[in-house]
Design a protein that fits this description.
432 residues; alpha+beta; Alpha-Beta Plaits; Chitinase A, domain 3; Trigger factor, domain 2; 3 domains; five-stranded antiparallel beta sheet; 12 helices; 11 strands; elongated
Length: 432
C-alpha cells in the first residue's frame, strides 16, 4: 500500500492511496475460501462447493467489501503514519477500483490547527464591577407596580401612557393591505409596539373618533411586500383607558408571595433577587470579555467541518419549523450564524489548549453544585440530581461547563485585569 499526504491549505490535506491488484486478489481469495466453508448452494454439500462457483456468485460482492475495507484501512494508516489530527469526516474525491487495475483513491480532509498560545500574561481584560443601589431597587419596585397596573376607562383625549382599544385598516390607494387590519386591538401609547408614528397619531383622540393618516412601513419590516411602502390608515377609537398603579402595601406584597404582608421583608427579598441576578450577569459578562480578549489575541484557522457542525447545532431547534416553511431559511442571517459558529469553534479549541497545557481538572464539588443549582428549579431536586448522575452524557455537559469556567478563572488570575463600573440595568438588559 502506497500512501502520500499533500497539504492543500492551512488545514486541508489530500491523502492519496494506491493498493496493488495482487493484494486485493489475495484478500478476495481468502474471504471467498472462508465463505465456501459456510455458504449453502443447492446440489452441493456445505464446504464442497467448487471455488469457481463461489467466485461467480459472490466474487463481485466480496471485492466491493474488500475495496471498502481497504479504503478505511488506507485512511487509518495515513492518519497514523503522518500523525494527522483529523477534524470531521474525510471525503473521497476520486477512486479507481476496476478489476485488474488495483485500487487508487484520493481523500480530502481537514486537520486541527497547531495552536501556539500568546502568553496569557499579555491579555488585557476590563472586568465589570457593579452593585445594587437604592435607585436600582426603587426602579425595580416601580416595575413591579407596573406589572399590577389596572386600567380604567376615561372620557378625555388620549395621553401618553394611556391604553386605547381600536379597530383599524390599512390601504394602498383604494386596495386593502394584506395583514393590515385588526379589530378591538389594545394599544398602549408610548409602548412602541406599532410601526413608527402610528401611536403618535392616536394622541389626543377620544372614544368614538374616526382617524385617517398616512405612514410608511419601515425598510426592515418583516413583510417584504410592505417594507418601505406608504399606506393610508383608517382608525376607529373605541375606548380610552388610563393606567393606575397600586401602592406597595400589605395586600400588594402578599401578591408576590410575602404571606406576612411585611413591606420591608418584601423589599429585602426583591434586593436579594436582584443581587442574585447581578452575580449571574457579572459572571457572564466577565466570561464574555475574557473570551473576547483570548480570541483577539490568538487568531487561528478553524476547520470548516467543525464550523458546519456548530452551525447545524444552532439551527437544529428550527429544523421542524424550516421543514414546514422552507422559505424561512432565506430570511435567516446565515452569514452571521456562520461567523458566530466560527468564533465558538475557535474559542473551544483555544480553551481546550489552555486546559491541556495547564492541566486544569474539573472540580467534582463544583460539578455537584452546578447540578444542584439546576435542580433547584424543579419540584423534586433530589430526583433531578440523581438523574444527572445516572446519565453520563448529560453530566459530561455540566462538567465541560464547569471546566470552561475554571479555565476562565485561571486566565483572569494570569492576565492584566482592570475594572470598569457598569450600571445594574445595562448589565441585566445585556444578559437577560
Amino acid at each position: 500500500m502506497q500512501i502520500s499526504v499533500e497539504t492543500t491549505s492551512d488545514l486541508g490535506r489530500k491523502i492519496t492511496v494506491q493498493v496493488p491488484e495482487e493484494k486485493i486478489q489475495e484478500e478476495v481469495s481468502a474471504r471467498l475460501k472462508s465463505l465456501a466453508q459456510r455458504v449453502k448452494v443447492a446440489g452441493f454439500r456445505p464446504g464442497k462447493v467448487p471455488a469457481y462457483i463461489i467466485r461467480q456468485r459472490f466474487g463481485k460482492q466480496v471485492r466491493e467489501e474488500v475495496i471498502y475495507d481497504l479504503i478505511g484501512a488506507g485512511l487509518t494508516e495515513a492518519v497514523k503514519e503522518y500523525a494527522l489530527r483529523v477534524a470531521g469526516e474525510p471525503k473521497i474525491t476520486s477512486q479507481e477500483t476496476a478489476e485488474g487495475k488495483g485500487l487508487a483513491f484520493e481523500a480530502q480532509l481537514e486537520v486541527y490547527p497547531e495552536i501556539q498560545l500568546a502568553p496569557v500574561e499579555t491579555l488585557e481584560i476590563i472586568q465589570p464591577v457593579c452593585e445594587v443601589t437604592e435607585a436600582d431597587l426603587q426602579d425595580m419596585l416601580q416595575r413591579l407596580r407596573e406589572q399590577k397596573k389596572t386600567w380604567h376607562e376615561v372620557n378625555r383625549p388620549a395621553q401618553a401612557g394611556d391604553r386605547l382599544t381600536i379597530t383599524f385598516a390599512a390601504f394602498a390607494g383604494d386596495r386593502p393591505v394584506a395583514e393590515g387590519r385588526a379589530e378591538h386591538l389594545a394599544v398602549e401609547l408610548g409602548a412602541g409596539k406599532m410601526i413608527p408614528g402610528f401611536e403618535d397619531n392616536l394622541l389626543g383622540s377620544k372614544a368614538g373618533d374616526h382617524l385617517q393618516f398616512e405612514l410608511s412601513f419601515p425598510q426592515d419590516y418583516h413583510s417584504k411586500e410592505l417594507a418601505g411602502k406608504t399606506a393610508r390608515f383608517e382608525v376607529d377609537v373605541e375606548k380610552v383607558e388610563e393606567g393606575r398603579l397600586p401602592e406597595i402595601d400589605s395586600e400588594f406584597v402578599k401578591g408576590y408571595g410575602i404571606e406576612s404582608g411585611d413591606v420591608e421583608e418584601f423589599q429585602r427579598e426583591v434586593r436579594a433577587n436582584m443581587e442574585r441576578q447581578l452575580r449571574r450577569a457579572l459572571k457572564e459578562e466577565t466570561k464574555a470579555r475574557v473570551l473576547d480578549a483570548l480570541h483577539q489575541r490568538n487568531p487561528i484557522a478553524v476547520p470548516e467541518a467543525l464550523v458546519r457542525q456548530e452551525s447545524q447545532r444552532v439551527l437544529a431547534p428550527l429544523a421542524k419549523a424550516l421543514k414546514q416553511t422552507p422559505e424561512a431559511l432565506n430570511q435567516l442571517p446565515m452569514e452571521s450564524i456562520k461567523e458566530n459558529a466560527k468564533r465558538r469553534v475557535a474559542l473551544g479549541l483555544l480553551l481546550a489548549e489552555i486546559i491541556k497545557a495547564n492541566e486544569i481538572k474539573s472540580d467534582p464539588e463544583r460539578i455537584r453544585q452546578a447540578v444542584e443549582d439546576v435542580a433547584e428549579n424543579y419540584e423534586d431536586p433530589d430526583q433531578v440530581v440523581n438523574w444527572y448522575y445516572a446519565h453520563p452524557e448529560q453530566l459530561a455537559q455540566v462538567e465541560n461547563q464547569v471546566l470552561e469556567e475554571q479555565a476562565v478563572e485561571w486566565i483572569l488570575k494570569q492576565a492584566k485585569v482592570s475594572t470598569e463600573p457598569v450600571s445594574f440595568q445595562e448589565l441585566i438588559q445585556k444578559h437577560r
